[in-house]
UniProtKB/TrEMBL annotation:
Coiled-coil region(s): 23-50
Basic and acidic residues: bias regions: 270-282
Organism whose genome encodes this protein: Dissostichus mawsoni
Ranges for domain L1 transposable element RRM: 74-157
Lineage: Eukaryota, Metazoa, Chordata, Craniata, Vertebrata
Ranges for region Disordered: 248-282
InterPro entries assigned: L1_RRM_dom, Transposase_22
UniProt KW keywords: Coiled coil
Name the record gives this protein: L1 transposable element RRM domain-containing protein
Amino acid sequence: MKSELEDMKQEMYQKLSANSALTQAHETRLEEAEKQIDEVETVNMAMSDALIKSMKQQRAMQGKLVDLEGRSRRNNMRIYGVPEEKEGNSVPDFVDQLLRTELALPDTNLQIQRAHRAVARKLERNAPPRSIVVNFLEFNIKEKVLKKAWEKKILMEGRRLSFDHDYATEVVLKRKAYVGIKRVLKEKNIRFQTPLDRMRIHWDSGTRTYDSAQDAAQELRRRGFSVEIPDRNASELYPEIENLHQTKTWQRVGESSAGGDGTASRARKRLQEYERIPPETN
C-alpha cells in the first residue's frame, strides 16, 4: 500500500514538474512578446510624435504662405458681374473708364498697372462671368476706389457689380463658408463684418469675433437660430492633428493604468496560478 502511494506521489510530482516547465516556457515566450510589443509601441509613439510635429510645422508654414500671398495681393481689387467680352480689346482701359465714370473720379490718377479676367476657362453661356482682377500701383488709391464702390450701387446690363479685395485662395474658401450665416444674420437685421477669414457679429449683448464659420454657426444655434454648420476647410490640419492625439492612448506593456493591470500582466498572473511548488522529499 505504501509503495503504491509513493508511486502515485512520484507520478504526480513528475506531472507537476512538467507543468511547471511548460509554464516557465510560456512565461519566457510571453516576456519575449512583451519586449517585441514594447519595441513596436515605442516606435509607433515616436512616429506619431514626429508626424504630429511635422503636421504642425506644415500648418504654420501654410499660414505663412497664405499671409505672403495675401500681402502680394494687397494692391489688387476684384470686380464681379461684368459680362464676358464687355471689356473689349483692353481690360485696363475698360476698367479705368468704368471707375472714372461710375465713381466720379475724373481727375484722379488711378495708376492701374494691370487688369485682366481671372485665369480660368470661359464658362458656359448661362454661367456667371469671370471676375476681373485690377492691380493698382498704390495701395491707398485701391482702398479709396474700393470704398467708393461699396458706397454706390453700380449696374451693368441690369445686374449689380460687386467689388472686393483680391483674397488668397484659402481665404476665399473660408469666407465662402460664411454664406449661410450671413443670410440668416441679414434676415434678422443683425449687423456683422467679415474681416479677412473671420466674422465679427454685433449682438445686443456686445460684439464678438469668431475665428471660423463653424464657431459662428454653433453660436447662432445656441442663440436659437436655424443654421447649418459648414464643413471645415479640407486644407486645414486641425481635425487630423486632433485625431492623432486621440489615438495616442497606447500604454507600454507592464505599466499599470487607471483601470488596472495591462493585458500582458493579467496573462502572466493567470499562468502563475497554475504553477505548483514541488513537494519536499524526505
